Structure formats: C-alpha cells, structure tokens
Amino acid sequence: MPLKWRACTWRDGMEGGLGSHAFCLVYQHMTGGFGDGQWVWTMNGMPHNAKVPLLGFADTADEAQRAADEIFDVWLERSGLMIPPSA
Fold first, then answer.
1. Residue 37 CA from chain centroid, whole number
2. What are the φ and ψ backbone dihedral angles of 22, each rounded to 5 degrees?
3. Nearest to residue 24, comparing CAs of 8, 2, 48, 3?
4. What are the backbone dihedrals phi and psi of residue 69, each rounded to the nearest 5 degrees, phi first?
5. Alpha helix locations (H) across 1-87?
6. Rounded to whole angstroms, how far apart are CA atoms 84 and 34?
7. CB count, 10 Å around CB of 86?
8. Could you count the other beta carbons within 10 Å of the beta carbon of residue 11?
9. CB neighbours (10 Å) of residue 46?
10. How far is Cα 77 from Cα 40, in angstroms, rounded to an integer?
11. Is residue 82 exposed (0-12), middle (13-18) or buried (19+ Cβ within 10 Å)?
12. How many CB atoms lie within 10 A of CB 72?
C-alpha cells in the first residue's frame, strides 16, 4: 500500500543519566485499502514499555499532530523525565 510521508517533528528529552534521546512523531497518509483517507500517526524512539499508544488514526494531519503530542505529554509525565527548556 503506498504511503506519503511527512517530515518528522523531533522532541528531545533526557533519560536520567543515560544521555539524550530523540522522539519523533511520524505521519503517514494511507492512499488506499484499510483506513483509506485517514492519517496514521506513529512514534519512534519511545521505550516499548511506555504504556501509552504508539500508533493511532486521525481524520486530518492536524488531528494526528494533536493526538501524538498529547500521547507524548502523557508518556513524559508517566516517565518522570524532564525536557530542558530550549535556549
């Protein structure tokens, strides 16, 4: 099934003393088959035990962005990690 990829949105976070990790929200548009016309959002760079959804569907790209951002914030809160403010 052909997919159209959009640019990633990178979110940087610190994992305790283990160094820096990058979190990427990836958006793809399904052009045919199951989920036709929907945006699929996925998250890369997240731990497998995050206990939050790492995949979801949305009707628009903006909705996908909001959903993925909300899930990231939930994961960040549950993880207890902090993202230093940008300089």
1. 19
2. -105, 135
3. 8
4. -65, -40
5. 61-79
6. 40
7. 5
8. 18
9. 19
10. 23
11. exposed
12. 20
Give the pLDDT confidence of 67-87 residue by residue, as tens digits: 777 877 777 777 776 666 654
Q: How far apart are CA 84 and CA 2, in angstroms?
A: 38
Both tokens of 19, joined, read: 């160094």
Residue with tokens 């976070």: 13
52 in the Ramachandran plot: left (φ > 0), alpha (ψ -120 to 50) or beta? beta
The pLDDT of residue 69: 76
| Mean pLDDT for the stretch of residues 16-20 | 38
- State both tokens at 81: 């990690």
CA–CA gap between residue 63 and residue 86 (Å, rounded): 25
pTM (whole model) above 0.70: no
d(CA 87, CA 85): 6
Contacts with 73 (C-beta within 8 Å, 6 or more apart), sequence order: none
What residue segments make up the domains of the chain, in order of their start?
A: 3-79
